[in-house]
From TrEMBL:
The chain crosses the membrane at residues 20-42. This is Mannose-1-phosphate guanyltransferase C-terminal domain-containing protein. It comes from the Bacteria. Keywords: Acyltransferase, Membrane, Transferase, Transmembrane, Transmembrane helix.
Amino acid sequence: MPTNSPSAPAVCGPPYGDRLGGFLIASWAVLHVPVLVLLGLVAHQAESAAPSVAPAATAPGLPLVQVRHLFTRSSERRTAMHNITGAPTVSAEFTRADYRTTPEYYFETERVTDPVVLRLLDLCPTVFGLKKAVADLLAGRNGIALPASEGVIEPGATVRGEVIVAAGAVIAEGAFVTGPVLVCSGAVIEAGARVRDNCVIGPGCRIGFGAEVTRSLLVGGVFMKHTSFVGDSVLGLGVNIGAFVSTTGLRVTSGPVTEPATEEVCAHLDGHRIATGQTKCGAVIGDGVIIPAGTVLQPATLIGPHTMLYPKTQVGGFFPAGSQGR
């Protein structure tokens, strides 16, 4: 009787040639997919790095001005600071139309008690004209009557040039004051302080040891009790300047420093370069602002009233009224 020999198991699957093709295709994908992913990342980065331009901004009677997008990453902000001279410049006509450049935006004029300081604020359509207005005032060119010099200059104080010390003001022993300077009623320039060259020190201000003020208007009640420097600036009511604070009036991108300076310093608002008409421009600081110790204010810094600045080594640009700066 014939016996049935066991049969070979059936093979389910593709033939050998098909399996080899599948292996080759899989190998090609493994080798080339990373390359394709890398090429995609490079293309994405190139697209992200392409400069973007916001829609044109307009102002009445002015040509269209291209406004750059605000950068959000710190590296992009640093790059923007190096290229800041390439931003568009806006004429003085634009600044007059912008309320954020007027004295009324920064200073509550109803609280200004000194008639000379109040007249200066009324004369200027923008804060950028106040430094020249102070120089014209002390030179007798704008018709504002100056008070009589009836204050106290203590023995041992060094006073040179035309210095007017109003009734109730004091220049203490050891202070250095070089005119033209007006020290308003109730202001005190203490021992070791330095005030020079076209300054109006408003009522109730205190300038302490190691503090220096030059070519500036202090509206009133300003405290500079520690070593610090304020130049080419306007400080509002009740501003407090911490220790080792300094304003700066020239940009490092302007090339070699010359004296007197010749290149105009511009402020910056909404991506526009705002002409200041000044070759040295420090800061405009609104009422009630406290500048933390160790802060350096970049040229043409604009700080609205009652702004809260947190400790930081460098501060610049524009801070709206009542904002917080970190």
